[in-house]
Model the fold of this input.
Amino acid sequence: MAKKVNKDIPLEIVEVFRSGPKVPRLKDGNKDWEFLIYELKKLGVTPGEAYRIINEKKGNTNIRFQWKMMRFTMYVWQRLKEGKNSMILRPKIDSVREVVSDRKFKEFFYGYYPDLEFDHDKEVKLLNKLIAEKPQRQYLTEGNYFYPGTKKMIPQKELDRILQINK
Done:
């Protein structure tokens, strides 16, 4: 039986990757907004924290899932770049460090979690752990990733080669 490929997820991830996460601005002059801001300040809630909490609860996107797929995409693209001219790839942890050290990773981190402090070592550990988890392998399959700058899907054979996942 042919495997169903959901082309919406990688297209959405590529679009978010291109445009970045968006944080809407509050409109001035509304007393209800002023009251809300006053109350949030009293509670010590930062604007980024308030936005993240509300978006997680009321938004139509799953921020945690999007952030996971963004990290996977950056990792896959890094492995593609490393394996482009060579059959022998660097250790996975080196690729993870390279991804987390990239400026784009930090920008997206603050885009998704503006109220959290970026900790390089913690993010390296979390991404490395995420990649190694067995339940996450379903997301490291054909149909979830495009080649950088194109809309051409990365075939499973290529993903298996660059990710070197032991099944």
Q: What stands out?
A: The mean pLDDT is 83.
